[in-house]
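Rather than argue in generalities, we have chosen a single entry, letters for residues, whole numbers for local backbone shapes, without further comment.
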Amino acid sequence: MAIFSSLAGFFKRNKRRIFITSAVTISVYLLVNEFVIKKFKNYQNALRQELMFKQQIKQRFLQTQQDCYYTILALLPVLATPIVESLPVEFITQALRLKKGQPQQPQPQITSGSSSELTADNLNLLDNNNNPQSKLSIYMNKSKLELWNLLKIKTITRTLTLIYSISGLLLITRLQLNVLARRSYLESAILMAGVKAINNDSDPHENYMIEQSYLSLSWWLLNKGWFNLSSLIENIVIKKFEKITPKTELSVIEFEILLNDIISEINTNNKELILSNLFPINYQDLLDTIVNTNPDLIHYLDIPDSNLIKLINETNNIMLDGNLYFFDILNSLILTNLSTLSSNLSLNLSNVSNSLVMSGNLPDQKGDNQINSKSQDNNNITTLSTSKIVEIPDKSYKLASFLAQLSIQNGIMINNNEPPQEEQEQDEFENLMNNLNNFSGNAIESETFQQSNNDLNGNVYINNMNNLDDLDDFSAGIYSNFE
């Protein structure tokens, strides 16, 4: 009992101090809980929301880039079909095939039982009926030399036109989709934050139509721009390859340098022309595009504050920026395609050469004394045994071999889904090699090409461009521009 009495006395003597101490302790606890712990929890919640915000941006950004990739694959046939038709390498090759072994004649003579020769009346009739043979007849009236020169120019022009057009389409699509994705994300973020948007009263259907109209501006490149680029490229190709015949021997590096020189000349002297053919920068081109895609929205071009005009102006500003960053990215894509092309050419030509050596089907001495002599002098190929071949890089091949390979690579460039169809391309290659190089062992050559092309699962050109770091940086710069 004495203990309780002493405790009671202690509390009586220190009642005031205990009360004050307790009050202060509780107050401190409440203050700490209110201002420190809650502040800390709020800070944690803010960090969590920021991380979620960044994660959402990242996911939407990655999804946008994936959408760009599949959009390009979907548009490839639309872009490639008119390019291939306007540069009819296949018709020229077929005409060379039909002329193989036939004597040179001023005009094709008519034999009633021949299926490969056409009368003048039939030619006119076929021309009027737009029959594919009418196009072939145009080339059947040319000499073999003229056909080889045409094949040289058209094949190289087609290749570079595809490279420029595909590169431009990929870059423009990235620009457009990232601009729209950023705008869409901002609108959704504003709605989630509970802030009333400035254009809250706008019609969602109208906004959708404007966005679709903006995306459809790629019609200009798909229908008009590629043709202007092709004309520009062809003129420079003619100048660069004027003195190079199909029998001229070039290494892969030398051939790549020639193509790179053409690209450098095009980019140095025609920057504005190139940009104006990737996107309708000029008002008349823009008007033409809208009329052919969404004529109902043409009145928006006269409204300076319309969303369509804002989107177009933003695109033009990015493309025409004084630092030429857009054009630098375009050049990087083009050079990436050129590098991919050179790698594939080197691989396929080396495989064919090795197959011929291993099978003993070397070029005929009578027709290829020059190439045999050059091979011996430069030690390009050394046979150690029947099972081991050592190939020294930088071997020379005739231009005709490059033309055959370019035709195959064109098919890979425009492939958007299934593995490349090779049957026609193999026939094309065999015909070229037989006409010029007199190679034998065609079955082995075809098998080699089939094996090498089957290794290219998907479109290696699109994949290499899509994986370019500069392109991702460009897209991220557009997507993160929240001004």
Notes: The two ends are 79 Å apart (CA to CA).
